[in-house]
Design a protein that fits this description.
It comes from Rehmannia glutinosa. 29% of the residues lie in helices and 40% in strands. By secondary structure, the protein is of the alpha+beta class. Strands 1-7-6-5-4-3-2 form a seven-stranded antiparallel sheet. It starts with a strand and ends in a 5-residue tail after the last helix.
């Protein structure tokens, strides 16, 4: 198994960053940057009146992770994932958990992202914590090959993570300008 953890500070308030997170896949301007994302559909959303928490489940279709030769071996170029999100506006926390539901006999990927107000500037900045784990399954007998493939997958996920942060920053700047009444 391989994976990574990373933190990123957005110099934007929590409300703006979480709004950007919801818009990240919907904005047509981001299609080229996030070209690995093929489709996103909301399956359910529920606002719990007693706690004020919003629960959302989305289906996400992506290009299958990993090197091209692995996709060739498994005979599939797409992977279906489920993203579960919990937003607690009272405590100002947004948590996302995404895992693949297809290709599970070949690969397991789980990504967790959490957005919280930054402790050094809770009203102006947001800290994003991301953890991703990747496990190649059928190659466990060929450990060295599995490790290399897992590492390539990690590199690809990290690269896509950078692109995702770029999109989030662009949307945050757009939302900031919009709140000031400036056309972008």
């Amino acid at each position: 198994m391989d994976g990574y953890s990373q933190e990123h500070t957005y110099k934007h308030p929590w409300e703006r960053v979480t709004s950007a997170s919801w818009r990240k896949f919907a904005d047509p301007e981001n299609k080229r940057t996030l070209s690995h994302i093929l489709e996103v559909d909301t399956l359910s959303h529920k606002l719990e009146p007693s706690s004020g928490k919003l629960y959302t489940t989305r289906a996400i279709t992506i290009h299958a992770p990993g090197p091209w030769f692995v996709r060739k071996i498994i005979g599939q170029d797409m992977c279906h994932c489920v993203e579960s999100t919990v937003v607690d506006a009272q405590s100002r926390s947004m948590q996302l958990a995404t895992r693949n539901i297809s290709l599970q006999k070949f690969i397991e990927v789980e990504e967790k992202i959490r957005y919280d107000p930054h402790p050094d500037n809770p009203n102006g900045w947001t800290i994003c914590r991301q953890e991703t784990s990747i496990r190649i399954k059928p190659l466990s007998a060929l450990a060295s090959m599995a490790e290399k493939i897992e590492q390539r997958c990690v590199e690809k996920f990290q690269h896509n993570s950078v692109k995702g942060r770029e999109v989030m920053e662009r949307i945050c700047k757009y939302l900031e300008a919009e709140s000031r009444g400036i056309s972008v």
